[in-house]
Each structure stands twice: as C-alpha cells, then as structure tokens.
Amino acid sequence: MLLEGKVAAVTGGGSGIGREICKLMAAEGAKVVVNDLGTAVDGVGQSHSAADQTVGMIKQAGGEATPNYDSVATPEGGQNIIQTAVNAYGKVDILVHVAGILRDRMIFNMSIEEWDAVINVHLRGAFCVVKPACVLMRAQKSGCIINFSSISAAGNSGQANYSAAKAGILGLTRTVARDMAKYGVRANAIWPGANTRMTATVPESARQIRAERGIGQAAPMPATERQPEHVASVVAFLASDMAQDITGWTVGISGDRLSLIEDPRPVKTVFCPGGWTLDKVTELWPQALGLDLRHLQRAGQ
User: Fewest beta carbons less than 10 Å away: which of 85, 101, 166, 278?
Assistant: First the structure.
C-alpha cells in the first residue's frame, strides 16, 4: 500500500491515463478525488458519466473515491477541485493534472478560439488547480504535484496550441518545484506515451509528417506496448514517500522506456571579449556555431 493514508486529486481522471492513475492510487491506499468535466476530446460537451464510472470502478474494487465535475480552466473550478478533497477527506497530499483536449490545426489555419481552448485547459488549468493546492500544501508543509506535459513541448506539426501549452507546463512545474521546496512540497512533470482516445484522433497523414521530422511514429504502437497503466505506475511511484527527494524533473514514460528528460541547456557557447557587435557575429558565427542549424533535420537524426 504505497500511498496508504494519502489523499489525491486527479484532473482528467474519467478516462485514459487519468483513469488508470486514479485506479492505481486507490488500489495503493489513497483516497481519490476524480475530476472530469466529461467533454469530448476537443473539449465540447459535458457529462458526469466519465468521473462517475471511474469512481464506481474504484469503489467496486474496495477503494475510496469522490467525483468532481468542475472545469480546470477557471479559478473557481480549480479551487473547487481541491476543496472537494478537503471536504471529503480533510486534506490533499497529491495533485495530478492530466486534463487536456486537442484542437490540432496547422498554424496558418488555427483560429484564436482553437488556441485559447487548448491553452485554457492545459496551461491555465494547471495554474488554476496548482495554486490552491500549493496554498494548502504550504500550510501543511508537505505535498506532491505532478503535471502532465508532452513530447510535443519540443514542437510538433499541427499542434502550435498544444505544444505551447505543454512547454509552458514544464516551466511552471520547474518554478513550482523551486518555490515550494522549502515547504517540503515537490513538483515533477510527465512526458507520457500511451494509446488513448487522444492519440487515436491523430490522422494518418499527421503521423507520417511527424515521423519524418523525428517526432512521434508513423503508426501507433500495439496497445500492449503503450498502455496507460505503464504511465500510472510511474505517477504512483513519484507520488509516494519513496520519491520524497525527487523534484523539478521531467520524466518520460512510454511502453518499456523510462527516461529523465533534461531541462533546456546550451549546446554550444562562444564568448567575445568586449561584447557582440554585428561585425563580430557575422565573422565568428559561421565557424563557431555553424550555418546548417535546421532544427527539424537535427531532430530527425
């Protein structure tokens, strides 16, 4: 019972990876608030059925769970998610922000509505639920926050909104880890890879383009190789006391591959005494940094 006595709130817990996280945490002894607005993959519609089904599964297996149907995209919704945990179980020890939607479109065709919808759920949603969690965790001087990012944070064709949101989550998570360290609260991010209803919406043409550019695959892996349960196992470990000294990291988990993802860092550095004038840049850049720096080509190698 790795999480016995702990209280967890999981956004997007009604299906896919979120559901498996809720089920595993409950099986490991945690009391779980299952948040899910019950929308389609594109964020349209609302339903209680997704959260209720996960809660039902947990209770049927002998665990404890409470549903929540608030949107993570508003401060009120984020506060209500955390307050549901406090009202039901007296505290919150673990927050996992999985909730997300997709509205893929090439940048030259993307509308501001498509941009805002994805940013609001992923990135604004992370802030809206992380802040009230941090208020309580700071007071109790303990807690664990796990935010879901994506390999798309490195850039992905047709996903300007999603990639920007997921990259923003990495910066947010690293900052939360720094801000909350002295209060005994840790924060990490996940780069997941699993076959879910979100990955099933990616058209074959987009898969081919991304594979050619070194991101993603030309075809989905067999379901047995990229199961949501694999991701849930890593999340449960990071939420446990065994991981009490792990904070500020991005962890990649996809099928049989588990990785620590390094933060952005310089790959080459050049110094120019007296500072860089345009003449010095044009003189020294070619030999010091090179001119063939097409990042898409580099990513595909």
Answer: 278
Question: Which one of the listed residues 69, 89, 162, 183 is annotated catalytic?
Answer: 162
Model confidence, pTM = 0.88
Q: Is residue 225 within 8 Å of 255, Cβ to Cβ?
A: yes
By the 8 A CB rule, do 13 and 65 touch? no
Domains located in the chain, CATH noted? 7-261 (3.40.50.720), 266-301 (no CATH)
Tens digits of per-residue pLDDT, 246-290?
A: 999 999 999 889 999 988 889 899 999 999 999 999 999 999 999
Q: Which residues contact 87 (CB under 8 A, 6 or more apart)?
A: none
Interacting residues of 116 by C-beta distance below 8 A, sequence separation 6+: none
DSSP 8-state class, residue 242: G
Residue 29: is it exposed, middle or buried by C-beta count within 10 angstroms (0-12/13-18/19+)? middle
Residue 204 in this model has a pLDDT that exceeds 60 = no
Let me know if 162 is a catalytic residue: yes
At 226, list the tokens: 């990229």
d(CA 185, CA 54): 27
Is residue 76 classed exposed, middle or buried when 0-12, 13-18 and 19+ CB atoms within 10 A define those classes?
Answer: exposed
Name the residue among 101, 99, 95, 73 with its Cα closest to residue 18. 99
**Those residues with Cβ within 8 angstroms of residue 257's Cβ, 6 or more apart along the chain or in another chain:** 193
What is the SS3 assignment for 30?
Answer: coil
Note every long-range contact of 107-116, with CB atoms under 8 Å and residues 24 or more positions apart, other chains counting: 107/160, 110/160, 110/161, 114/161, 115/160, 115/161
